[in-house]
Amino acid sequence: MSSAGCSPARVALVTGAARGIGAAVARGLAAEGSALVLVDRDEPALAALADELTGVEVLAVPADVSRADAVADAVDAAVARFGRLDAAVNNAGVPGPQVPTADYPVDAFWRVQQVNVGGVLHGLRAQLPVMVGQGRGAVVNMTSGAGLRGVPGACAYAASKHAVIGLTRTAAVEYARHGVRVNAVAPGLVATELTAGLEADEFAAAHPVGRAARAGEIADAVCWLVSDRAAHVTGVVLPVDGGLTAAVPGLA
Ligand SMILES: NC(=O)c1ccc[n+]([C@@H]2O[C@H](COP(=O)([O-])OP(=O)(O)OC[C@H]3O[C@@H](n4cnc5c(N)ncnc54)[C@H](O)[C@@H]3O)[C@@H](O)[C@H]2O)c1
Predict the structure, then answer these.
(1) Is 250 inside any structural domain?
(2) Mean pLDDT of the chain
(3) Which of 5, 14, 222, 242 has its CA 20 to 30 A from that of 68?
(4) Pocket perturbation via mutation, ligand 1, pick of 14, 21, 207, 245 by most ligand atoms within 8 A of CB
């Protein structure tokens, strides 16, 4: 195997980086030696993570990913600081209210799309031209098991995560010849603040492995996908879900 086939990303941008899966991805990429651009709307939490990550260069950019201009500015700041962008992880997301579809508040539905779908679109619009210019780059978009299945009470979240898969596959086929790979990771239940209010025990038990994921287990898959070890992998939706999407309900 050539050493180039194992190289991690040199400069990586992560959205929703301040906590949960995004923070675990940031820690994983830092451990591999990547310089980091960390984006989140929670400025104090972002600053705390940046302080924690010693040994690599870190640029913290407070920004709301639902705003196209803010995401474009973050990518511009990354290129201004580091001169390149090898990897981007469009991870920021919100769950939205839990309400049956017929009663779902329309404003809340669109707010979820603005963050979960808009955030990915805004990321791709800013990141892809930089990567095309370099002739290489890798993007991972964070979808969910809710991007592959219906989830009662979560039409906005499920619609947004299905849309992330459509964005991922389309960008993957559009930019493959430019040396840019675009993939998605679909976690099942991950123990983070986002899931703290859910009936975690029952849902966790439905996973064939019998438990929720740790955020670091999702990060490991992301770090592999953005590295050159996944050089021939593009357009995939990788479940990292302890077998959840493979299981026949009730027989796991
Ligand atoms: N936790 C799970 O079980 C699970 C499962 C499947 C998919 N996911 C997805 O993984 C991603 C991360 O989830 P998590 O569990 O780590 O969530 P989390 O709530 O722990 O962290 C999300 C981070 O994103 C940031 N964020 C939210 N909206 C933002 C915005 N508009 N602009 C900038 N930053 C914003 C928050 O400040 C927070 O730091 C989300 O896209 C989520 O849908 C999570």
Answers:
(1) no
(2) 94
(3) 222
(4) 21
Distance separating alpha carbons of residues 130 and 141, to the nearest angstrom = 17
Residue 179 phi/psi, 5° resolution? 85, 15
Q: Quick: pLDDT tens for 18-27.
A: 999 999 999 9
Query: pLDDT class for 252, splitting at 50, 70, 90?
Result: low
CA-proximal residue: ligand 1, atom 1 (nearest): 190
Q: At what angle do helices 20-31 and 215-226 cross, to 10 degrees?
A: 50
Number of domains observed in the structure of the chain: 1
Q: Within a domain: residue 211?
A: yes
Q: How far is the CA of 188 from the centre of ligand 1 (A)?
A: 13
CATH code assigned at 175: 3.40.50.720
Q: Is residue 251 part of a domain?
A: no
Kindly state whether residue 117 falls inside one of the protein's structural domains. Answer: yes
164 CA from centroid of ligand 1 (Å)? 14
Give the whole-angstrom CA distance, residue 2 versus residue 81.
30
At residue 160, does pLDDT exceed 70? yes
Does residue 57 register a pLDDT over 70?
yes
> Which ligand 1 atom is nearest residue 215's CA?
16
The boundaries of the domain holding residue 204 are 3-240
The answer to whether residues 242 and 19 touch, using CB atoms and an 8 Å cutoff, is: no
